[in-house]
Specification:
The structure holds two protein chains of two kinds. Chain A contains six helices and five strands; from the N terminus they run βαβββαβαααα. Chain A is an alpha/beta fold. The model of chain B has no long low-confidence stretch (mean pLDDT 96). Classes of the chains: A alpha/beta, B alpha/beta.
C-alpha cells in the first residue's frame, strides 16, 4: 500500500495571493524532506476570477491534483469560494474558514491575509516552525518579509 | 542576474524545470512568444547569462531563429503554447526534412481543459504529421531529465525533437534536483545544398531520408528506457504517457504499467509484449485517442476510454470511470466570471463601443474579456492577428457599422499583415489598437513596441504610429481612452469617413504602472439606482442589497470611469 499523503486545498480569487500561500506550504513540506507537489487551477483573468491551488506532500506523490472528498485541509481566502469548495473535504477534513472569519479583527486593512491563513494552517501540520519560517523567507524573498513573518506568526497563534 | 545553483532541491514548475534542464544541456539560443501555459519557460531562461534568449515577434519567427541557430552549430530551444505551433507549422514541416546540426528541441505546452486558450488541440497529432519524435514527461522533474535526453536524440538522429508538456505539468511545482551546465562543443557548420536548400529535387531526396530516419527512431523507441515497464498485478495494466500516467498510478498503485516517455514513433513491439503479459490493458490518455489509434492499427487488443473523455482536462477521479467503460458525466463547477481589472484601460473603450452598438471584430488578449455581458462589446475571437482580418470580411458584408480591435502585442505578432491587406485591397475601415504597452494576459511580457527585451535591456522601439502609416492607414490617431467624450467623438468621426483609419487607444496596463488615485466617493442622495455604473463591469463598483452601490477602496485604483458614466453626479472624484 502507498503511504498516504497530506492534501491541502487553497481557494479564493485572483490577486489574493493564493499561489504564494500554497507555495509557502509546498516549500515547507519540501524543506522537511517530503516529496511535495503544488498545482493551480485558474482562468484567464489576471484579477478577480476563481483560483484554486492544490498541495500534496508525502513520501511519494503521484497525482498533483487532490481528489474530490480527499482533501485534509481547506484553506479559503474568500467566503463564497469556501462554501463552494467545502465538498472537496474528507469527512474527517478540516475547513479553516473560522480563521478567515476572525482575520478581520487581527489584520490591518486585510493585508497579507494569505500569509495569515498559512500561519493558521501551519499549526495543524506536523512540519517544524523553523521550516515554515524558512519557507516564508524563501517565497517572499525580501519583499515585505518582516511584515509577512509577523502576520504568519499571528495566524499561527490564532490556533489554540 | 545569474541564478545560483543550490545543492538541495528547488521547488520548480514544469516550465522552470524544463528551462533548467535545457540550460544544463548547454542550450545557447532560446526563442518563444508568450502564451499560457508555456510563458514561464522563457522567463526562467532569461535568468541565465549564458543563454541568448528572446521574446520573438511571433512563434514562426521564434522557431526559425532557434532552428537556424541549431543548423549553424549550437544547441537551441523553441517553446510555445499549443496554438503557437500552428503559427510555426510552415517551418516545422520542412525542418523535419532538412534535419538540424546541433540539438534542437521544440517544446509545445498543450492545454487540455482550455483554462486560458481558444481551443484544446492535441499536438501529439502534429508530431505525427510532421514526422518528428515526441517525448512526453509526466512531471517537472521528468521534464528536466527528458529535455536533456531530447537534445541527445536530436543530435543522434539529426532531427528536431518535440517535447510536450500539458498545463498540469507546466504549472505544477515539485522538488527538482538541480545539476551543473555541460556545454558541448559547437558543431561545425558547412553549407550543404542538398540538405538545407529545400527545392523540389533536394526535398524529394530528404523526404526519403526522413522516412528512413523514422524507421531508425522507431527501433530506438522500442528499446529506449524512456518507454518503461513496471510489472505489478498482472490482472490490470495501463498504457499511459504524461500526467495521465500519474493519475492512473494514483488510483491503481498496484497495477502493471507501460509508461510511454517517447510516444512517437510508436513502440509497437514493446506494447505487444506488455499486453501479452497482462490480462486486461487500459489505455489512459487525455484528449485525442492517439495511443489508442496506434494500438488499433497494430491490431493490439486494449481497452479504451469512452469518446466523451476526448474533451476537457483529465482528472484522477475519472480513471475508475474510464476503466469501467462509463461515459463522462461530470457536473460543471460554478466559477466566477473573469473580468477586466479595476482601472483597466480597455474598459472605457468597450463602454463606448457598447454605447455605439457597433459590430466588433475581436482578437486574443485580456481585451477578449470585453465580450462578456454587460460590456458585450467584442463579437469574435478566433486566433492571434484576426482583429483586422475579420474586420475586413465583416466590413465587406456588414458595411461601415464595424470596427476591429487588437492589442498592441497581438498587432505586432500577426496583425500588421492584416492592416497592409486592408490598405492594399482598398478597404475603408476603422481598426482600434488597444495599446496597454505590454503583453497583458500572459503576465506583462515586453514586446517590440515597448522597446525592452526579455532580459530587461533597452532596445530599438517599434513605433506603432509609423508602422500603421507605412502599412497604408490614411489616419492614425492616438488617444487616452479615459477621455471618453473625445474617444466617442473620434470613433464616430472615423466611421463616417471613407478612409482606412487606425485609432491607437493608449494607456499603460495597471499591473505594469501601479500608480493609484484615491477612490471616488459615492453620494447616496443623488443616486437614482439606474445601474449605469454597474454596466462598466468594474469589480470595484459593487451593488449593495438595498440597490445602491459602494466603491471598494482596497481594489479601486481611482480611474474615475464610474464618475464619468454616472449621469446624476452620484459618484464624485476624490481629489
Amino acid at each position: 500500500m502507498i503511504e498516504r499523503t497530506t492534501d491541502i486545498l487553497f481557494c479564493g480569487t485572483g490577486g489574493q495571493g493564493i499561489l504564494k500561500a500554497s507555495e509557502i506550504c509546498a516549500v515547507a513540506a519540501m524543506l522537511s524532506g517530503f516529496h511535495s507537489k503544488k498545482t493551480e487551477v485558474h482562468g484567464m483573468a489576471q484579477r478577480g476570477g476563481s483560483v484554486e491551488s492544490h498541495v500534496r506532500y508525502g513520501k511519494k506523490v503521484f497525482s498533483p491534483l487532490t481528489l474530490p472528498g480527499g482533501v485534509d485541509f481547506l484553506v479559503p481566502l474568500d467566503l463564497s469560494e469556501s462554501e463552494k469548495m467545502s465538498r472537496e473535504l474528507k469527512k474527517t477534513g478540516k475547513n479553516l474558514v473560522e480563521y478567515l472569519k476572525i482575520s478581520g479583527e487581527l489584520l490591518e486593512n486585510g493585508f497579507f491575509l494569505n500569509t495569515f491563513m498559512v500561519g493558521a494552517l501551519s499549526k495543524y501540520l506536523s512540519l517544524s516552525e523553523k521550516n515554515w519560517v524558512k519557507a516564508v523567507r524563501q517565497v517572499f524573498d525580501g519583499k515585505h518579509l518582516d511584515a509577512n513573518i509577523e502576520v504568519f506568526m499571528k495566524g499561527r497563534d490564532a490556533v489554540i | 542576474m545569474k541564478k545560483s545553483v543550490p545543492r538541495i532541491s528547488s521547488l520548480l514548475s514544469g516550465d522552470e524545470a524544463l528551462a533548467q534542464g535545457a540550460y544544463e544541456a548547454g542550450v545557447k539560443i532560446a526563442a518563444s512568444y508568450p502564451g499560457t501555459p508555456a510563458t514561464e519557460i522563457m522567463e526562467y531562461m532569461a535568468g541565465f547569462d549564458e543563454v541568448d534568449c528572446q521574446w520573438s515577434v511571433n512563434e514562426k519567427v521564434a522557431y526559425e531563429v532557434a532552428y537556424s541557430g541549431a543548423v549553424a552549430g549550437v544547441r537551441t530551444l523553441f517553446s510555445a503554447k499549443h496554438v503557437g505551433l500552428n503559427v510555426a507549422m510552415d517551418s516545422i514541416m520542412t525542418s523535419a526534412y532538412t534535419g538540424i546540426n546541433a540539438g534542437f528541441v521544440v517544446v509545445t505546452c498543450d492545454e487540455p481543459g482550455l483554462h486560458s486558450s481558444q481551443n484544446e488541440q492535441d499536438n501529439r497529432l502534429l508530431a505525427r504529421i510532421a514526422k518528428l519524435p515526441l517525448l512526453e514527461p509526466s512531471s517537472p522533474s521528468e521534464a528536466k531529465e527528458l529535455v536533456i535526453k531530447a537534445f541527445e536524440i536530436s543530435e543522434k538522429f539529426d532531427t528536431p525533437v518535440i517535447l510536450r508538456l500539458t498545463t498540469r505539468i507546466a504549472h505544477t511545482k515539485e522538488n527538482v534536483v538541480l545539476g551543473k551546465r555541460r556545454e558541448p562543443q559547437n558543431k561545425h557548420y558547412h553549407p550543404c545544398f542538398e540538405k538545407y536548400v529545400m527545392v523540389p529535387k533536394n526535398a524529394g531526396a530528404r523526404h526519403i531520408e526522413l522516412e528512413e530516419r523514422l524507421v531508425r527512431l522507431k527501433r530506438y523507441s522500442e528499446v529506449s528506457r524512456l518507454n518503461s515497464v513496471e510489472m505489478g498485478d498482472r490482472k490490470t495494466g495501463f498504457i499511459a504517457a504524461g500526467v495521465s500516467y500519474l493519475y492512473a498510478k494514483e488510483m491503481y498503485p498496484n497495477a502493471s504499467f507501460l509508461k510511454l516517455g517517447m510516444s512517437y514513433p510508436f513502440p509497437e513491439e514493446k506494447i505487444r509484449d506488455f499486453v501479452k503479459k497482462v490480462r486486461t490493458v487500459h489505455v489512459i490518455e487525455e484528449l485525442e485517442p492517439f495511443i489508442e489509434e496506434q494500438c488499433k492499427i497494430a491490431g493490439i487488443k486494449i481497452r479504451t476510454k469512452d469518446p466523451s473523455f476526448r474533451t476537457g482536462e483529465l482528472r484522477p477521479e475519472y480513471i475508475p470511470l474510464i476503466v469501467s467503460g462509463k461515459k463522462k458525466n461530470v457536473p460543471s463547477k460554478p466559477s466566477r466570471k473573469p473580468v477586466l481589472c479595476p482601472g483597466c484601460s480597455h474598459r472605457p473603450l468597450f463602454w463606448i463601443l457598447n454605447k455605439l452598438k457597433l459590430n466588433v471584430a475581436g482578437d486574443i488578449g485580456c481585451y477578449t474579456l470585453g465580450a462578456s455581458a454587460p460590456l458585450s462589446a467584442l463579437h469574435t475571437c478566433l486566433c492571434m492577428g484576426s482583429g483586422d482580418t475579420i474586420l475586413e470580411g465583416f466590413t465587406k458584408v456588414l458595411g461601415r457599422n464595424v470596427v476591429g480591435v487588437i492589442g498592441d502585442s497581438t498587432f505586432v505578432h500577426s496583425g500588421i499583415t492584416g492592416l497592409i491587406n486592408l490598405a492594399y485591397n482598398k478597404t475603408n475601415a476603422v481598426l482600434i489598437i488597444l495599446d496597454n504597452s505590454t503583453t497583458g494576459m500572459t503576465g506583462s511580457q515586453p514586446h517590440p513596441a515597448t522597446g525592452i527585451t526579455i532580459k530587461g535591456e533597452k532596445t530599438k522601439k517599434l513605433i506603432l504610429e509609423d508602422v500603421c502609416k507605412a502599412a497604408g492607414a490614411d489616419n492614425v490617431d492616438v488617444i487616452d481612452p479615459f477621455r471618453i467624450k473625445d474617444l466617442e467623438a473620434l470613433i464616430k468621426k472615423r466611421i463616417g469617413e471613407d478612409k482606412l483609419s487606425v485609432i491607437i487607444s493608449r494607456y499603460p496596463c495597471r499591473l505594469v504602472d501601479r500608480r493609484k488615485n484615491a477612490a471616488p466617493i459615492f453620494v447616496q442622495d443623488k443616486c437614482k439606482k439606474c445601474g449605469l455604473c454597474l454596466k462598466i463591469d468594474c469589480p470595484s463598483v459593487m451593488k449593495q442589497t438595498d440597490g445602491y452601490v459602494s466603491i471598494d477602496r482596497t481594489t479601486c485604483v481611482g480611474c474615475n470611469l464610474c464618475v464619468d458614466v454616472c449621469p446624476f453626479g452620484a459618484i464624485i472624484k476624490n481629489d
